[in-house]
Amino acid sequence: MIALELITETDRLCEFEPEWSAFTNTISPETPFQTSTWLMTWWKYFGSGEPRVMVFRYGGRVVGVMPLFLHVWNGRRQLTLIGSGITDYLDPLFTPEWSSQIAVQIRRELQAWDDWDICDWQDLSVNTPLQALGALASDTPCSFVPIDRPFSVYLESRPKDLKRNLRRYKEKAEAIAPVTFDVARDAGDGLLSSLAKLHRARWEKAGERGMIEANRSDQFLYAIGRYSLVGG
Fold it and tell me: CB-based contacts of 67: which residues, under 8 Å, 6+ apart?
């Protein structure tokens, strides 16, 4: 039988984080948003209500983590996935061989609770292991651009309007100052602060608030930028 631990306190969740991270490394998630580093940092800056994190173990080792929290939203008591709102796919991680049994236990656990009104689980993929719990509703898909050839070849295949706009914006930028491109291996606070400042200025020019300011997520970005999310 799979054993279940239900974590309802932030202190216990912090204690569990190293074990969670080790489990994440064995799964090799498809996105960094499924790692314990991303989710625990998200909880620190955006978490509200009460953690309801289900930890599944077999023979003492973790085989699945269902990171939920319970909070009041729009007048209803809602169970939400930790990490919701600023992610791409957020599927919980289960060891494949135990996925079906874990889904059964999640259903049983939810049916035993009487203090929630709705589960609103967003940012899930079409193949999410949670589809065993009910029908999926279509939402905005996560976008990606496969680049399986040299970038110059890829760029040449783009529409004429896009290439014209790129040249135009490059010329406008170079009229202000020389333009160079580089890859930063470590996203320090200085770079992230500049990103937030430019983002804010762009949206203020349009008379709107950008998502960084609207979500008050600049401090979250600074914190998450200090971690390498590759490998958890």
Answer: 39, 51, 53, 81, 82, 83, 92
CA pair distance 168, 24, nearest whole angstrom: 44
CA–CA dist 33, 50 (Å, integer): 20
Q: Give the pLDDT confidence score for residue 216 in this predicted structure.
A: 77
Beta carbons of 210 and 197 less than 8 angstroms apart:
no
> What tokens does 39 get?
């989710």
Please, which residues bridge with residue 195 across strands? none
pLDDT tens column, 94-149: 999 999 999 999 999 999 999 999 998 988 988 888 988 887 788 777 777 888 88
Residue 67, classified by CB atoms within 10 Å of its CB into exposed (0-12), middle (13-18) or buried (19+), is buried
Using 50, 70 and 90 to split pLDDT, how confident is the model at 33?
Answer: very high
Please report, as a single letter, which amino acid is at residue 37. Answer: T
Which residue, 34, 2, 230, is CA-closest to 128? 34
Token pair belonging to 186: 């470590």
- Output the DSSP codes for 51-111: EEEEEEEETTEEEEEEEEEEEEETTEEEEEETTTTS-S--PPEE-GGGHHHHHHHHHHHHH
Decide: pTM greater than 0.90. Answer: no
CB 118 within 8 A of CB 79: yes
Q: 136, 126 in Cβ contact below 8 A?
A: yes
Phi-psi region of 72 (alpha: psi -120 to 50; beta: other; left: phi over 0): beta
